[in-house]
Amino acid sequence: MRQAGRSLPEYRAMRRSESILEAVRNPELACEITLQPVRRYGVDAAILFSDIVVPAAAIGVGIEIVAGRGPVIGEPFRRAKDINRLRPLEPEVDTPYVIETIKMLKGALDVPLIGFAGAPFTVASYLIEGGPSRNFTHTKALMHTDESTWFALVDRLADLAIASLVSQIEAGVDAIQLFDSWAGSLSRRDYAYFVQPATTKVLEAVGGTGCARIHFGVGTGELLDLMADTGTDVIGVDWRTSLAEASTRVGTHRALQGNLDPALVVAGYEPARQESERILREGAKHGGHIFNLGHGVLPETDPDVLTRLVEYIHSWDPRATQ
User: Fold this and answer.
1) Fewer CB atoms inside 10 Å of the end CB: C or N, the chain?
2) What CATH number belongs to 4-236?
């Protein structure tokens, strides 16, 4: 997952004096941070060092990523006129540093590179709430009291994500991941009506490039079938839902990604290995499966445990399921 570097001492040393957004805007630094987990762990793909709020920040939305909290917006979006603060993204002008980082990485990597963006709902929730939220009160209130403003906002954010992702693909990424991190806060009805159309717009637009698409959310077990019906190729599954259950809900026409609980890596190698074996068995029964954590790497993770875990996964024999 994209936070793979933050448990590494070499990452903390490089990030000591720079904010995340400052680091993203420095192609040499962003390139090095992207490479660090690949070197350390020997994983099968790299994921671009960036953040889901980079496009919004690049077009002038006042966003700061506060350590220990996350994205904070100085002036939340609460009214129809606030949508005018979201102009179209021009990647060559607004985010040239992302394009340059990707080009540098393509010359340095011998594994595929995954780019990403934030899904319209999750980015909208930050803009409306003013930062991370537990209950998404203002977001749900806007959905249910001013539908026209809500749909205009997520449509504008869908265009922002499309422009960002297409620029990443043109620069050379091999796959993209759309993070709808907080979609799990929604009911099935609200997701299908208020969120799914904008998400589908993004993934179908990217699908026209032929690039592989991954769609991931947290706490979305009850939404997996709806999330799969958005044009994605792969569904990310967090640790709350077994791959066996996810396979039933999604069907075998989509690959699955996931889903080791990150806390088990902190617990130590043996608990992580035992659970990983179960996940690998379930993934093998589904068919297409990308082993991954069920969310980001926790900062207190021992890098050596992850290194050993990757070695175990690479050595695992699918015939062991027979």
Assistant:
1) C
2) 3.20.20.210
